[in-house]
Write a structure and sequence with these properties.
The protein has about 180 residues and is mainly alpha-helical. The protein is built from eight helices and two strands; from the N terminus they run ααααββαααα. Strands 1-2 form a two-stranded antiparallel ribbon. The protein is globular.
Length: about 180
């Protein structure tokens, strides 16, 4: 298992102790310090969202911005702004992939929520789940696959990509899956 800073470690321990029931008390972890850590963990040179505000510009009034974001997030009045849409070429194809770029503020809140949920859902992943996980890489995934193929004399490998999955996935089903482990009190 990954190592987490103390607050995240406490969340992981609670999630492990209560594997069969949803976690309800996470709101107190989301505070100014948590959002500040989220801000500083973002990449500083990423593309800007619809507001064209960079990481550095958001940080010029960081304390004020974090307080405002926290108040809106906790009161339920926060509304994610539209994402800036960019089409990027798909490698080995003439197709383009749509990429949505959120604002810096939205990235901060997304990262803060990820920091809350990651220690809970990390327990649900299988050892061969490598995508977008802390401490896991595509190289480790390929090594795991190679070892499995060699150790088990596998003759066939099927490479499958679900076309436009995120364009068509039912968000209500994803929310239902999230509610199995995390609910609002």
């Amino acid at each position: 298992m990954c190592t987490y800073p103390p607050k995240r470690q406490r969340i992981a321990e609670i999630a492990k102790r209560h594997r069969e029931e949803p976690i309800t008390l996470l709101h107190h972890y989301l505070d100014e310090a948590w959002l500040t850590v989220a801000y500083y963990s973002l990449s500083k040179d990423k593309a800007t969202g619809v507001d064209h505000q960079s990481w550095l510009e958001y940080g010029e009034n960081l304390e004020e911005n974090i307080k405002s974001l926290l108040n809106r997030a906790k009161s339920g009045s926060y509304k994610a702004p539209p994402v800036r849409g960019v089409n990027i070429p798909k490698p080995g194809s003439k197709e383009k992939r749509k990429l949505g770029i959120p604002t810096t503020e939205d990235k901060v809140l997304q990262k803060a929520v990820l920091m809350l949920l990651e220690p809970i859902y990390e327990l649900e992943f299988l050892e061969f789940s490598f995508g977008f996980r802390r401490g896991k890489s595509q190289h480790q995934g390929l090594e795991y696959l190679w070892k499995g193929i060699m150790d088990n004399n596998i003759q066939w490998v099927i490479d499958l990509d679900i076309r436009k999955f995120f364009d068509t996935v039912k968000h209500e089903i994803l929310r239902q899956l999230l509610r199995i482990r995390v609910v609002r009190a």
